[in-house]
Automatic annotation (TrEMBL), chain A:
Keyword tags: Oxidoreductase
InterPro entries associated with the record: Ald_DH/histidinol_DH (IPR016161), Ald_DH_N (IPR016162), Aldehyde_DH_dom (IPR015590)
Source organism per UniProt: Aeromicrobium ginsengisoli
Keyword Oxidoreductase carried by entry: yes
UniProt protein name: Aldehyde dehydrogenase
UniProt domain Aldehyde dehydrogenase: residue ranges: 25-253
Record bears the keyword Magnesium: no
GO MF annotation terms: oxidoreductase activity
UniProtKB/TrEMBL annotation, chain B:
Gene3D superfamilies: Aldehyde Dehydrogenase, Chain A, domain 1, Aldehyde Dehydrogenase, Chain A, domain 2
Annotated active site: E257
Keyword Oxidoreductase: yes
Protein name: Aldehyde dehydrogenase family protein
Source organism of the structure: Aeromicrobium ginsengisoli
Record-annotated Aldehyde dehydrogenase domain positions: 30-476
Length: 287, 480, 310
């Protein structure tokens, strides 16, 4: 007698917990051939609101961790992902219909990407900051700081794209509400399980599955969100309307890409730089 | 009658030659516009200074075309070292003609000559000098070996620091290799128009700098022009939001430097006399027409009485009057409209139960004036503690502990600047870390330098002006 | 450390700090005031009336002191409307000469004392020096503090010496010579020290506080005087007692003097715009004031042959 497998309930990841959508709604994730992969929680605007609350709550603690500690925590995430490497490869094959080699390439790149960004935690201030030679008896220093709560529409690259937008945001101390790829949500849920079992504090990353077109406008207009990353928005009209909504409290916006992004390419500092604020401190020099 | 009565010491206005009317500066020459005109007046006397052209959308289009042509054919092909020399030339001319500009600025804007002469104009020249040196060093700006300019920059500047804001905008744009179309504010267009003459004197290639005048509609036409690659705006948060909406879905890069409601925090161990100077300079410099003004004073309760006494005493020595008098500390409010806004919000302060005290000043008969004023008994629940007044009005609140000071300071949608006064070093650093503001002045206030990035968090805008960061705002490869 | 020293340290340590950059910026800002025409004429006359015309040289002789005293009484002998100086300032052994020369002119004789300028002598010698000057007729005593004691934190010693010197200023008739306390701010180095010394001296009974001996550079500066003016202002607010201020040394031009008067006007107010409460310790300043005075009167620039030698 063959053993009946135990299927997984895919849930949202908010504040370090795994709730169902408050709306009770679900949608079906399907594989590359249209076969059933799982019932996903279909996040509502209220789930988005809860996620922002969780992200805001986590911001104070996360942003004031030492850079070394944030680097270690993000690196630890890569360690946990490595342990789930086979699972990710299998999920990418199923979802996107990739062959084994390609799926492996993406999963390895995703893990390596997290490692790459982990290393930036205690360096980006040195690269993006400046001591400023002002013309007077003043100490003058500019340092980048995390902007706050970042709402992100993840690219459809279900794992590499996803970590490539989350990692630069959190490594500087931001907290994130991310809407996973609508088409390939399953790897995002697995990633959230990696996060939950790594040392990442609850609320630093919150992952919603569902429809960006439905949830993103609520995040774009949310007055307690500081930045909006439209990496995964491929509908120009939706992108423009989200930018318009973001103007209500002048969110920093990382615009939707105008051409397809090669997530395998080595990143620049642009994503990291787009989610920090430069603070300049003056102090007189005297006796 | 006081013992030591300072005799009038007016700066001569004969140094500046104001024309009766001005066209638009497009493609290296002054041209007539297709629309009407408006008058620029002196806010201290309401005297008409000149007729200025109201640029239409067609005029804006012409200016953008001139900038595009200059970009394509001349400016983008010049080596950085040559661009640098043009900017050095401008820096030198601005230094040579600084008194002329200072007088014109004080006439058109109403600010005291000692501020236009000792603060604005020196910074203008320095700003050009600083960015001149970047023009041939772009590969060292941290954006790769050969970062490219953006193209045509549309720049809209406010009336509070007209020529200084022009320098903040034009110097980095040109250094990075862009060409510009700049619109000064409708109440203060004259120094920008005089700057057009400086461009001619420097033999800057035609079209590299274009100056168009007009009000909101002209600015909107510029910002929304499809051939503008970069929008830089300094002004109100409301207009900043409108600009952010209007560029949605485009590839235009944007820098916004908007409003503020800065907390100036005084601890009981502060160097009190210097703190009082910082409070006074923080809110009464430039009649409080300063986006980063320290308009919310947070005083630790243990030192409250002493600070208020010293502050009132100090304010009583402020001299309000003729902007051209070298001893004037407080000039005219820039416009009737702004004066009405200041009066309205001050009345709200009264109505909400805050206690008003104004420095004893004689108010001139003509022009727009408002005596330096403080409100005590203000709480976070007062409108005057939340809304930007943009005038010489200080709202005074108290706090008990550092944590309370931080909470109150950050409890605002703005985040441009903040001040901290304490002799304890570790507390300064802790406060500086926790304040959500783009500029933190510790034991000083309202200091500016071309090498120092300036700009806000939250609804105070995005992007930075000044320093390497300000240069990056005009180059490809930067994110924002 | 005695209880008194501990208590003084606590009191002086509790004074607000002085931020050097902010202080100097404020002083420079006041220095940009433009004092013209009638205001300038008034200020120059006031400045002349505040001068403690000074000679403090090893080469001083009765002849030199007589010349100085005559100059103080009639700074511009060609112009009777020109005010006289406030006082002449000399060494103790010259007090009698000065006193005799000034007669009943109303001008004071100020004498430095207490082993001026270093103050490095035993207390009884410093007090004898003081009593000697007072007996010779000095109206004002300019004492120096023990900077060494101050810099080692021995505030009690400095305090006690001021108190003792003040006692030595007493005359048999119950009055006493006015006591000016010199800090030698160039040796105290920091503005925080200047503020502490100001309060220390005032608490000990100083009638005037004075920047410098003129023998150490830098002598009087605008920022140092600003700190002292803030101190006398705050001291009066706290105790009700008004104390005078005397910048001395290095003030050479009318332009400088007017900057000081602007500072007095705006920091402590017109109560101090009076020779009883503000003095300039100077020598060459007087002639520059006179040259400027002549320029205002005649409309053209004057020259050194038209003012008298000291």
């Amino acid at each position: 007698m063959t053993r009946l497998d135990v299927r997984k309930t895919h849930k949202l990841y908010i504040g370090g917990a795994f709730p169902r959508s408050e709306s009770g709604r679900t949608f079906e994730a399907v594989d590359a051939k249209g076969g059933f992969l799982g019932n996903m929680a279909l996040a509502s605007r209220k789930d988005a609101r809860d996620a922002v609350l969780a992200a805001r709550k986590a911001f104070g603690g996360w942003s004031t961790r030492t850079p070394y500690n944030r680097g270690q925590v993000v690196y630890r995430l890569a360690e946990v992902m490595e342990g789930r490497r086979d699972q990710f490869i299998e999920q990418l094959r199923a979802a996107e219909g990739l062959n084994d080699k390609k799926a492996t390439t993406y999963v390895d790149a995703a893990i390596d990407r997290v490692v790459w960004y982990a290393g930036w935690a205690d360096k980006y201030v040195q690269v993006l900051g400046n001591g400023n030679p002002v013309s007077g008896p003043f100490f003058n220093l500019s340092t980048p700081e995390p902007t706050g709560v970042v709402a992100t529409v993840a690219p459809s690259g279900p794992l590499l794209g996803l970590v490539s937008v989350i990692a630069p945001a959190i490594v500087t101390g931001n907290t994130v509400v991310v809407i996973a790829s609508e088409k390939y949500p399953v790897p995002a849920v697995t990633l959230s399980e990696c996060m939950a079992t790594s040392d990442l504090p609850g609320g630093v990353v919150n992952i919603l599955t569902g429809k960006p077109a439905e949830i993103a406008p609520w995040l774009a207009s949310h007055m307690d969100v500081n930045a909006l990353d439209l990496a995964g928005v491929d509908d120009p009209e939706l992108a423009a309307s989200l930018e318009v909504a973001a103007a209500d409290n002048l969110k920093r916006v990382l615009r939707a890409p105008s051409a397809p992004v090669d997530w395998l390419a080595e990143p620049t500092l642009a994503r990291l730089e787009g989610l920090v604020e430069t603070k300049t401190v003056w102090h007189p020099i005297g006796v | 009658m006081t013992k030591f009565e300072y005799a009038p010491a007016p700066e001569s206005r004969s140094i500046v030659d104001i024309k009766s009317s001005y066209g638009l500066y497009i493609g290296g020459e002054f041209v007539d516009g297709k629309g009407g005109s408006f008058k620029s007046i002196s806010p201290s006397t309401e005297e008409v200074l000149a007729e200025v052209t109201e640029a239409t959308a067609d005029d804006v289009d012409l200016a953008v075309k001139a900038a595009r042509q200059a970009y394509d054919k001349v400016w983008s092909k010049l080596p950085g070292s040559e661009r640098a020399k043009y900017l050095y030339r401008i820096a030198r001319i601005m230094a040579e003609r600084s008194r002329e500009f200072a007088v014109l600025e004080s006439l058109d804007n109403g600010k005291p000559i000692k501020e236009s002469r000792d603060v604005d104009l020196p910074l203008v020249s320095q700003w050009f000098f600083y960015y001149a040196g970047w023009a041939d060093k772009l590969g060292h700006a941290g954006l790769g070996p050969d970062p490219k300019a953006l193209g045509v920059a549309g720049q809209v500047i406010p009336w509070n620091f007209p020529i200084m804001m022009l320098a903040w905008k034009i110097a980095p744009a040109l250094a990075a290799g862009n060409t510009v179309v700049l619109k000064p504010a409708e109440t203060t267009p004259l120094t920008a128009l005089l700057f057009a003459e400086v461009c001619q004197q420097a033999e800057l290639p035609p079209g590299v700098v274009n100056i168009i005048t007009g009000a909101g509609a002209t600015g909107q036409a510029l910002v929304e022009h499809p051939d503008v690659d970069k929008v830089a705006f300094t002004g109100s948060t409301a207009v900043g939001k409108a600009i952010a909406r209007s560029v949605a879905g485009t590839s235009k890069k944007v820098t916004l430097e908007l409003g503020g409601k800065a907390a100036n925090i005084v601890f009981d161990d502060a160097p009190l006399d210097q703190a009082v100077e910082g409070i006074v300079g923080g809110i009464f410099f430039n009649q409080g027409h300063v986006c980063c003004a320290g308009s919310r004073l947070l005083v630790q309760e243990s030192v409250y009485d002493e600070v208020i006494d010293k502050l009132k005493q100090r304010m009583s020595t402020l001299r309000l009057g003729d902007p051209l008098d070298k001893n004037t500390d407080i000039g005219a409010i820039n416009s009737a409209e702004q004066l009405a806004r200041i009066k309205e919000l001050s009345d709200v302060g009264d109505a909400e139960g805050a206690e008003r005290w104004s420095a004893p000043c004689e108010i001139p008969d003509s022009g727009f004036w408002f005596a330096p004023t403080i409100f005590t008994g203000v709480t976070q629940a007062h409108r005057i503690a939340r809304e930007e007044i943009f005038g010489p009005v200080l709202s005074i609140l108290t706090f008990r502990t550092p944590a309370e000071a931080v909470e109150k300071a950050n409890n605002t949608p703005y985040g441009l600047s903040a001040g901290v006064w304490t002799e304890k070093g570790s507390r300064i650093l802790s406060m500086a870390n926790q304040l959500r503001a783009g500029v933190v002045w510790a034991n000083t206030f309202n200091k500016f330098d071309p090498a120092s990035p300036f700009g806000g968090y939250k609804e105070s805008g995005y992007g930075r002006e000044g320093g390497r960061h300000g240069l990056a705002a005009y180059l490809q490869g930067a994110s924002a | 450390m005695t209880g008194a020293t501990a208590s003084l340290r606590k009191t002086l340590g509790g004074l607000p700090g002085v931020d050097q950059v902010g202080l100097e910026a404020r002083a420079a800002g006041l220095g940009t005031r433009s004092i013209k025409t009638t205001a300038k004429a008034w200020a120059i006359d006031l400045a002349i009336s505040m001068v403690d015309l000074t000679t403090l040289e090893g080469a001083d002789t009765p002849g030199k002191v007589r010349a100085l005293a005559n100059k103080a009484m009639r700074p511009d002998p060609t112009d009777p409307s020109c005010p006289s100086a406030a006082a002449v300032c000399v060494y103790p052994d010259m007090v009698k000469i000065a006193k005799d020369t000034l007669g009943d002119s109303g001008l004071n004789v100020a004498s430095v004392a207490t082993a001026f300028p270093s103050g490095r002598a035993a207390l009884d010698i410093k007090l004898a020096d003081t009593r000697d000057a007072v007996e010779a007729g000095a109206d004002e005593i300019d004492m120096v503090i023990d900077r060494g004691a101050f810099l080692t934190g021995n505030y009690e010693l400095v305090f006690d010496e001021i108190v003792a010197t003040k006692e030595a200023c007493a005359r048999p008739d119950g009055t006493h010579a006015h006591l000016k306390v010199i800090f030698e701010t160039g040796e105290l180095q920091t503005y925080d020290n200047v503020r502490k010394a100001s309060w220390l001296a005032m608490m000990a009974g100083a009638d005037f506080i004075k920047t410098s001996t003129g023998k150490v550079q830098p002598a009087a500066t605008l920022p140092v005087t600003l700190v002292m003016l803030e101190a006398v202002r705050d001291f009066r607010a706290e105790t009700g007692r008004q104390v005078g201020v005397k910048p001395a040394g290095g003030i050479k031009t009318s332009k400088d003097a007017i900057k000081y008067l602007v500072m007095v006007n705006e920091i402590v107010g017109e109560d101090w715009l009076d020779p009883d409460w503000f003095r300039f310790g100077a020598s060459s300043l007087l002639n520059d004031l006179l040259l400027q005075r002549q320029k205002i009167a005649t409309g053209h620039y004057s020259g050194p042959d038209y003012v008298t030698l000291d």
